[in-house]
Amino acid sequence: MRKSEKKERLLKAAKHLIYRQGFHQTTLADISQESGISLGNLYYYFKTKEEILSAVIENQTKKFQAFTADLEQEPDSKNRLLGFLDIVITARCNIANYGCPVGSLSQELSKKTETPLDDSLNLLKNYVDWASEQFRLMGKQDAIALGRQFIATLQGASLLANALNDPEVFVEQAERVKDWVDSL
Question: What architecture is the 74-184 domain classified under in CATH?
Answer without folding.
Answer: Orthogonal Bundle (1.10)
